[in-house]
Amino acid sequence: MKKTMSGNKYEVALDETWELFGPYMSGSHAGLCCVISSEPLSEAAVKALDSSLTALGYGREACTYVISGDLDQQALFVLVEGLDPICIIAADGKSAALLGQAYHLAVPSGKATRLLGRTTVSFLDFESLLETPQDKQIAWALLKKLPKFGEKRG
């Protein structure tokens, strides 16, 4: 195993993950939350997710965004485990299905579940829930099932 100057093996795994899967990822280099979607999310969806994670105490830019489109289940598993996020959001049904295949567990839409100790929430179509105030509340209710992180600061 490679060693960094600081000897932090987790930093090496994270850097290797970005080297291998960088074209599929954006956002925070060491995100606390991994957001997976089959297609790139709109700017409005990214802003809504960033705001939601900030409200849950994760701070600004807490998300690493992954586009799962061309990835197979094994690659997605290696990518997520290399990132080692605290929580996972599947933004659409296709990404939730692939995530379920990768972890050999059901990832039900509209519910929270656990994948190797990480709270995971899954949407059929997060983007469509941004269209009305009522649907935004449905999305927020599911996002609030993610664990709160740290203390909120005013």
Instruction: For the record, give the distance between the C-alpha atoms at the N and C termini, rounded to a whole number.
Output: 42 Å
Structural class, by secondary structure, is alpha/beta
Main sheet summary: 6 strands, mixed
Sequence of strands across the biggest β-sheet: 1-3-2-4-6-5
Which runs of at least 5 residues are low in confidence (pLDDT < 50)?
1-9
H/E element sequence: HEEHEHEHEEH
Radius of gyration: 15 Å
Mean pLDDT: 90
- The overall strand count is 6
Q: Beta-strand level of the residues, as a percent range?
A: 15-25%
What is the approximate shape?
A: globular
Helix content percent band = 25-40%
* Count of helix runs: 5
Short note summarizing the structure:
This protein is of the alpha/beta class and 154 residues long.
Structure overview:
- This protein has helices at 9-21, 43-55, 73-83, 93-103, 133-143; strands at residues 25-27, 33-37, 63-67, 87-90, 112-115, 118-122.
- It is an alpha/beta fold.
- The protein has a six-stranded mixed sheet with strand order 1-3-2-4-6-5, sandwiched between helices.
- Helix 1 (9-21) runs antiparallel to helix 3 and helix 3 packs across helix 4.
- The radius of gyration is 15 Å and the shape is globular.
Features:
154 residues, alpha/beta, six-stranded mixed sheet, 5 helices
Chain-wise SSE layout:
Layout: H1 9-21, E1 25-27, E2 33-37, H2 43-55, E3 63-67, H3 73-83, E4 87-90, H4 93-103, E5 112-115, E6 118-122, H5 133-143
Parallel strand pairs: 2-3, 2-4, 4-6
Antiparallel strand pairs: 1-3, 5-6
Helix pairs in contact: 1-3, 3-4
